[in-house]
């Protein structure tokens, strides 16, 4: 009888934990791989080839940039695999800066993420989605800009709604869209490979002629390439929701980044097989131009596949980025309302909804190529800081448990290259990098007023608390009841 009583008590406890409000570990290896691939392969491979070629000056050098960007992204992903298994909290960059370099760098990363990085990234992916949906209906004429932005807003809204509704639905959506986008890449690679095998190599002859090459534009070429690889750190935002993270995070990162790098290089080879460099530079939609040349029977399908690819990247970003807000609020660096989750949906509803209007504002005012340069400086600066903090943490705590460890030489190499690109970009594009730096630095006074020493007037605090209380009731959200890290 005692045994039965104990068993019933254990069942009751298990049921209670199962029903507790928390972000659950539901992301296995396949969803984790799809989450990374789906976040990386978006609009970039269909937009960035033009920017890479324009700023590198030759076909051969542009392909070399694609390979080097893939290698650099792989090194960064491996560094983040170590960080993700060393520090088991979600939050990505923010968490690693907080644990290694302290609260101010972490807050500045959070501030820049909310103020312009995530809104800008979501905006240019949404705009790419809108362009590929609308332009086929108006070809060969230019599509109305207003209609493109309207469709972009619709796509963004649908993705935000999915992430508000269910973690499981967002995860399944990501898996589905990842398979669609990989099919799109294969549909480009195969006919390009066949044409290359038949001797269509005009674009590769004298491929390293660099008459238009300028050293000061080379960082912009890398920024466009790295933009296409952006998202390799996406899984680190949701560490607390990954099943067996010590195994699945490194494995998912390695599998996904090798796959993406090989596919990207082959896709660019296919582009140059069917188009001359001049034709590629004149194209506003590279994949569509390619399809009209190589896939005449399937040309109308390519824009749809590219649009779905953009939705997958958008979904990955909106799934992961709010977790940074969620963790920061839990650490006391953001208002507590954003550390709450929906009592039935188990989604970080306030964090997702907070980013939505910011993304809309940037979408309505931004332009794709300007947004890429604007975001890249701050994003890569903080990645370099995070890996620098990783080196410092290794030195200060050599016996700290690290289930996955990267050779120190690779970490140092990646960090040095990141800082080099960041510094050189100040010379290449001083306006966008200067604006990015200025906006990031505005977070310093905010940190000292709201976090370091809470100096808000008492009346303002009462208004804020009143607003937070009623928002909690309206959104039906509460603090997480189970510690997940």
Automatic annotation (TrEMBL):
Keywords annotated in UniProt: Membrane, Transmembrane, Transmembrane helix
InterPro entries, per the entry: AA/rel_permease1 (IPR002293), AminoAcid_Transporter (IPR050598)
Signal peptide from the UniProt entry: none
Keyword Nucleus: no
Major localization class: membrane
Membrane topology recorded in Swiss-Prot or TrEMBL: Multi-pass membrane protein
Residues that span the membrane, as ranges: 27-47, 59-81, 115-134, 146-167, 179-197, 217-239, 251-274, 294-314, 347-365, 371-392, 404-427, 433-452
Keyword Coiled coil belongs to the record: no
Gene3D superfamilies associated with the record: Amino acid/polyamine transporter I
Intracellular or extracellular location(s): Membrane
Pfam families in the record: AA_permease_2 (PF13520)
Annotated GO MF terms: L-amino acid transmembrane transporter activity
Any Gene Ontology CC annotation: membrane
Coiled coil (UniProt feature): none
Entry protein name: Cystine/glutamate transporter
